Amino acid sequence: MTDVNVQFLEFAKRGDIPCLRECLARGVPANVADEFGRTALHEAAANGQVEVLKILHEFEANPNAATQDGWTPLCEAAKYNHSQALALLLAHGASPTLPKPWSVFERALKSEASSDVFKALMSAINPDMTDRQGRPILEAAISHKRPDVVSALFEAGASDQTTSAGDCPLLALALNESRTFFLILDRVKAKIAPQALVELVSIACRLPDGRALPIIERLLSAGADPQLSDSSGISPIQRACLDGQMPILELLLRGSALPMEAYSWIEKGALEKVDECESKFFASCYDQGPRPLHRWDPRTEVALRSYLDAIRIIRPRLVLPASSDLLMISILGSDIQLCRDLIAGGAEVDKPDRKGRLPLVESVGRAWGGEFRDLLLQKGADVNAVDDHGVSPLLAAVWVDEGMYRQEEHTILQLLKLGADPNLADCDGIIPMMKAAQLNRCELVKMLWEAGSFPHGVDVHGRGVLDFARTEQDRMFYHVMFASGRGGDGAETG
Description:
By secondary structure, the protein is mainly α. It has 29 helices and no strands.
């Protein structure tokens, strides 16, 4: 390639009209190309040099000249968002289907080209052509969140792909960009079937509230029935209850009857959320940190906040049932007023929930449970009831006593005064005294011993209290204490 030709391409790139004309007048071919196949049209298009393009057209420059990889000047104009250059090239015979039918359109999408670029393209392309993945370019525009391009394609005659059954796959594809979704919905809502609308509501319910609410509201306006079941057999109202989606539930209930099953849906979803919260906690944190962690550590009150909000929404419309599950949710969610209301309405204070959790055990175990514990005891809760793990309130109180982190001596004394049996063992045969020894709480071991705890039993693995002691010094202390006999009323001797 001669120096003159190199200069010619540089003049086209810079938009140096006088020098460009001088080269052409001296006989430099308008289609001269470098070693990669780039011509002056490529350089001018890439830099938006419209006047250069006009001059090169006068000298019959090839608008479809291709580089070694098939790249045309039109691809360059689309890539660099030069709408005037693109329109001029099209007017002078540039093909938008080279090197592949989708090339220029795809390049414009990837380059986030302006609406003007796409408007210019619409006059020269088939709006239903497919991209390199074989999908209509309309779907590509939706995936790139370009409502302006979607609108231009529709105006150019692109198909909305609505099926004879009244389904529109484009709507589900557009759920991540509300403006595009609204554009398509407005176009197809007269053809969309009720079942398709409710499927979309169900999908939208899984989106974050800020994105879901306007979409659901528009679907409801289009005729979606929030009580109609989707393909999984769950209605949008039921899904909102199961997921504890208070703002969505509030929206769905506008002008719609509330099913009698709403509380049971919330109960099911809330207790599953507790299971999920606890599983994540134990998977990532168990036995880590400055102290041994336990089953009551997960912050269920945070996980249940949205479910408690949902309960507040439906209470004015449905009578609160005397449900053991709701009573447990009030404790795990730290809602004392709901707990009071449930007990006043007949909820049984000693009835476990569907997961086998016992109200008094859970209130003793949770860091925020003191107010719930006092309420349950005031209402006659059995201090010797055990949950499905065999855990009694007294064992739970000892279990969560963490010395400098959490002092529960007052709870332990309160339960003992109310008749708590210090020898009740859990499913592993562990009694409160064993757990106190394991936690290195010598004063609790002494307190339980004086309250009548029997120190010579063993758990299912054959371990006694002395085996749970942390140090040899503690073992010696317990051995001497147990051998000395129990003082006070009804003392037994070793």
